Amino acid sequence: MCEFTGKCANIIQSWKPAVLGLLDSLPYDEEVVVWGRRWIVKTSTLGERHGYGIYACEDIIVEDSTSCRREGPTLFPYGGPIYKRRHWNMILRQHPEWKTFALEMDTFAGSTRRHSDVRVIDGDPIRSGNIAGFINSTVGTWPKRRANCEWVFVEGPPPAPYGQTYHEDHCMVLATRMIRSGDELFTHYEWI
C-alpha cells in the first residue's frame, strides 16, 4: 500500500468490495463466482504486455434484439472508491502508477459536470477487488479482437442487495454479444 502525505492522506477512501458484491481479493487461475456467474482470472490471450484477463466459465447469451448495445446481460459492476477529478489529480501527483485502472464516470453522454468535478473510480483490481479491471482493450490488437462487453453509466444504485448505501449511481459491465465459456472479455477503450 502506498503512503500518502498532506491533503492526500485525508482524501484516500477506505473501500469494501463486498458493498458491490465483489470479492476482497481475486485469486489467479482459480474459478470465482461474482454476481452469480463463474469467472477465472488468468494470463491474457493478448500476451505478456497485457498481463491478466478475465474469462467466462459459462456461456452468456445475448438476445438478438439486444445487438444495439446497452441492453445486454449485466455481468458485474466497475467498482472502487469514487473521487472528484481534482482529488484524483492530487493522488496521481504523489503516486502516478494509480492511473492505470481509473474510469471517469461523467464522460458518458449527457454529463454536465465541470472537469474538476468529474468523478473517477479507482478500479484497481488489487486495491479494490474490481474484477472489471482485468478486462483488456481491443484497441491496437493483432489479430483484431471484437469487444464482447462495455462499461455503461447507470443512474441509481446497483440492484439489491448490492450497493444500496453506496452512492446514487454507478458503472456496470454489460455483455454486447454472446460470450462462450472460455472466452476472454474485451471492451473498447483508449490508453491514456
Automatic annotation (TrEMBL):
InterPro entries: SET_dom, SET_dom_sf. It comes from the Eukaryota. SUPFAM superfamilies: SET domain (SSF82199). Pfam families: SET. Signal peptide: none annotated. Residues 37-190 form the SET domain. This is SET domain-containing protein.
